Amino acid sequence: MSDAVSLEAAQELIVGRVHALAAERVPIERAFGRVLAEPARSACDLPPFRSSAMDGYAVRSAETATGSASLVLVAEIAAGSPADRPLGAGEAMAISTGGVVPEGADAVVQLELVQERDGLVELTQAVPAGANVRDRGGDVTTGSVVIDPGVRLGAAQVGALAAAGVTEVQCAKRPRVGILVTGSELRSPGEALGPGQIYESNGLMLAAQLASAGAVPAQLGGVADSEDAHRTAMERALLGFDMLITTGGASVGPHDLVRQVQADLRVEEVFWRVAMKPGRPVGFGMRRDHPVFNLPGNPVSALVCFEVLVRPAVDALLGIPDPMPAFQIGTLAASLRRNGEREEFVRARREREGSTVNLRPVVGQESHMIVSAAQADALVRVPRGDGELAVGTAVHFLALG
């Protein structure tokens, strides 16, 4: 195992070499899921005027100080239709939630606390100044930062930007990632299988994982087990994409050609093999500023390697400040034996019990068992060591899907 780096070392080597791509302007209506490259600043005060926090009546608080007041109803204010004059002494104006609080008023009394009859508004308790009034700029002021760089924009962030009048944001470019699948035995789903042939699944799986990470995947087809085919396909891919992922051909057999071909193409090898299971025969290198990942051909190995190694690289390309995997804490629902040489990622199902997440390993943990892995929604991290982790042990896991 001396030739294999630890998972932590591999992750540090990746994020230390991979840097954010250049930025581009993105219209706010297409910004969901993108990562900000620069601070997004408000184009207006929000709210842009003093507004009512509820349906009620705009009043002068001083006129309610005695706890009893009878005010003349002089206007109705709807959202988007401000009053055409200030509020005078002895007056009240009906106002809807979001309506502009008129000049002269400093409070809104909620509808349920008032009786209206014969054009008069009757109050039976004092209303403090500022009650139910949203100040101008109470949420954000013009030019203030709405969202910091490095944030991936979700629904709430897009809504905040739109409310602040932002029409475009500066975002990191989405990395374009080529996927090369190696192996003469592979056929596309739907084709007839000959002797010794299997259906290719890694390309589709990795494309889905890349899309979920915010990248733009491109499946470049299969590559036969010949040195010339490898060299031609990889040379083209290295020129046309921000990152390249190969799958298969990363071990030590006579048909595992990726490592030698990459060396011939001047890919700098950063590491080859990681002390983890599944996924030990995984490599990472750089061609100028383009990351290159060599993932194992076994589907579960490729799945796991993507989540713990490739996804952090995509996050780094997007400018995420902390691109390391976001492990959560759960509890084992079944015991697990530890591996003395490698840490292991076990596929499991999450079972909620109150606030506790119980993790139950699925049946079938071998690295080729992708159908068994499809039943899992978590990767449980089992540290290397002796003995076993008992039922009820707290462990770290990554959510899948």
Short account of what is shown:
The protein contains seven helices and 28 strands. By secondary structure, the chain is of the alpha/beta class. 19% of the residues lie in helices and 32% in strands.
Q: How does this structure look, described?
A:
It is a single chain. The protein has 401 residues and is an alpha/beta fold. The chain has seven helices and 28 strands. The protein has helices spanning 7-17, 155-163, 202-213, 227-240, 258-264, 299-318, 370-373, and strands at 23-27, 40-41, 51-52, 56-59, 69-77, 91-95, 107-110, 114-117, 120-123, 133-134, 145-147, 168-172, 176-182, 186-187, 198-199, 216-223, 243-247, 268-272, 276-277, 283-287, 290-295, 328-332, 336-337, 343-353, 356-361, 378-382, 388-389, 394-399. The strands form eight sheets. It has a six-stranded mixed β-sheet with strand order 7-4-6-5-9-8, with no helix packed on it. Strands 16-13-17-21-20-18 form a six-stranded mixed β-sheet, with helices on both faces. A five-stranded mixed barrel has the order 22-25-24-26-28. A hairpin with a 2-residue loop joins strand 8 (114-117) and strand 9 (120-123). Helix 1 (7-17) packs parallel to helix 6 and helix 3 (202-213) packs parallel to helix 6 (299-318).
